[in-house]
Write a structure and sequence with these properties.
- This is Regulator of ribonuclease activity B domain-containing protein.
- It comes from Acinetobacter equi.
- It is built from 3 helices and 4 strands; from the N terminus they run αβαββαβ.
- It is an alpha+beta fold.
- The chain has a domain of about 80 residues: 2-Layer Sandwich (Alpha-Beta Plaits).
- It has a 4-stranded antiparallel β-sheet.
- Strand 2 and strand 3 form a beta hairpin.
- The longest helix has 17 residues.
């Protein structure tokens, strides 16, 4: 199948979604997508985390032991749609900037199902 550049634009997000699609991931199914924000200070990270919790976002907050940076991961359960991801990236970028942090990208687990599995075969 030829790549549909309306659905999968030629940029980082479009390339990731296209690769997921090419790998057999069903992009019409909801995924838990993880968006990441990075902060230099614990105080700014905690203030941002509190703001996200008030917005009813599911998050984790942790410090990277190697870099001492603080990271917030926001978990959004959604269909991996290009325009929705871009909109959330914009929103998370604005929030991170308000608290002197930066948006650090997104990722998710790929859900690829093998319809050819024998009934007696269990996935590992």
């Amino acid at each position: 199948m030829a790549r549909d550049y309306q659905q999968f634009p030629d940029d980082d997000n479009g390339n990731v979604l296209w690769q997921m699609y090419e790998d057999g991931d069903d992009l019409t199914e909801a995924h838990e997508i993880e968006f990441s924000l990075a902060f230099q200070s614990q105080e700014n990270a905690e203030a941002c985390a509190l703001s996200l919790l008030k917005e009813e976002q599911k998050i984790t907050l942790f410090q990277d032991e190697d870099t001492n940076e603080w990271f917030i991961t926001i978990y959004v359960y959604m269909e991996p749609d290009y325009s929705d991801i871009v909109d959330l990236e914009d929103w998370f970028t604005k929030i991170a900037t308000q608290y002197h942090g930066e948006y650090d990208g997104w990722g998710c687990m790929a859900y690829v199902y093998d319809d050819d599995l024998d009934e007696d075969t269990q996935p590992i």
